[in-house]
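Practice problem 4.
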């Protein structure tokens, strides 16, 4: 980029920042005393002056010249005259112009995806969203299409199949996950979520995932009626679950499939329990199925969650806690202090400790969160811990 183009870009950026703040500041670039400008040779300086005069004739800037130097006088400052004209000189839209184009593109989607309005507000304030400005509005439109499409579904879907249906490209949805995150998070300024969490919250999966139940009781399916739980477990479509009944003493939600399988083999039915597999981060259809199951149980029945003792495990726990609210979710085998002698652990970094503690707090576990934030906090995979049900003492 030439020096003259760089100066005009700096001037436009300064003007757009002021515009975003609602400031009346008149943007200017001071060249008097600037070492880069002072060091230009005669020909280079004349070329810069020529380009600045063109910008001035087009109404983009006003030039302030030195009173001394005769025909070889120096340029003291370049002052903004018209932001739209300056953007035109640079061959692109101004920020306000780009936001207007984005607003028009968002119009068909903003009612169903309200976060788009927040994206526009951020852009008007000269802020970027997930690293993108209004020049990337088409990518946000694609993300809004995905969000709106999944809002209309009650079943989970395979992400690449949906991507082909919507865009003719099996990987398009995976390319715009950060934008999907922005449009579905509590706010567009929220910390980025893990890509699996973003997709799961929308009901998008890498592969279909059934709703798995093991233990005592029977589940009601919309099309098939009542079905007794079978040994080792029963697998059904989550969209078919609309009721449950049984003499249950506790419910255990399990994050990982390997551990769920071991739990099922350990006969939770004989311990008065019900074990559900969350399939990692729970999807909307899983949350609806879980709600249907829990609605058939008394509010006094405790609900436990067992997952990995790591950032992802506690993030999933926080999501599960939100899914079953106003019931209380209790941690099960999620405190490494009681497991150090029976399973191998690894140290947790400061960043990991902070993230785990934050998620544990969101799950409603403040005491555990305090421990997770401490230097004594460690990481532990769920599969390394022997199966133990809530009605039984911890393994020794």
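Answer key:
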């Amino acid at each position: 980029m030439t020096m003259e183009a760089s100066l005009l870009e700096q001037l436009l950026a300064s003007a757009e920042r002021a515009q975003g703040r609602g400031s009346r500041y008149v943007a200017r670039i001071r060249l008097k005393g600037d070492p880069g400008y002072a060091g230009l040779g005669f020909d280079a300086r004349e070329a810069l002056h020529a380009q600045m005069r063109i910008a001035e004739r087009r109404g983009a800037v006003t030039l302030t010249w030195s009173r001394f130097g005769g025909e070889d006088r120096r340029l003291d400052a370049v002052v903004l005259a018209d932001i739209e004209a300056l953007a035109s000189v640079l061959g692109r839209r101004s920020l306000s112009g780009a936001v207007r184009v984005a607003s028009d593109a968002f119009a068909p989607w903003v009612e169903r995806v309200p976060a788009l309005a927040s994206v526009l507000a951020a852009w008007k304030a000269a802020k970027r969203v997930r690293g993108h400005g209004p020049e990337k509005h088409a990518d946000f439109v694609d993300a809004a299409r995905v969000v709106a499409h999944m809002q209309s579904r009650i079943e989970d879907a395979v992400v690449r199949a949906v991507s082909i249906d919507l865009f003719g490209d099996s990987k398009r949805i995976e390319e715009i996950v950060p934008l999907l995150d922005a449009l579905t998070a509590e706010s567009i300024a929220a910390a980025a979520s893990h890509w699996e969490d973003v997709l799961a919250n929308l009901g998008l999966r890498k592969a279909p995932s059934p709703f798995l139940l093991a233990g005592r009781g029977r589940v009601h399916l919309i099309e098939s009626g009542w079905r007794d739980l079978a040994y080792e477990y029963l697998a059904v479509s989550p969209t078919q679950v609309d009721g449950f009944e049984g003499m249950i003493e506790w419910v255990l939600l399990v994050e990982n499939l390997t551990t769920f399988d071991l739990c099922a083999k350990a006969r939770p039915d004989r311990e008065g329990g019900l074990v559900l597999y969350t399939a990692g981060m729970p999807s909307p259809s899983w949350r609806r199925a879980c709600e249907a199951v829990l609605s058939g149980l008394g509010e006094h029945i405790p609900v436990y969650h067992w997952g990995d003792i790591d950032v992802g495990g506690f993030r999933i726990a926080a999501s599960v806690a939100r899914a079953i609210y106003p019931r209380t979710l209790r941690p099960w085998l999620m405190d490494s202090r009681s497991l150090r002698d029976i399973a191998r652990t690894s140290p947790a970094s400061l960043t990991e400790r902070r993230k785990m503690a934050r998620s544990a707090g969101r799950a409603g576990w403040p005491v555990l969160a305090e421990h997770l934030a401490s230097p004594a906090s460690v990481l532990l995979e769920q599969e390394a811990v022997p199966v133990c049900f809530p009605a039984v003492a911890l393994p020794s």
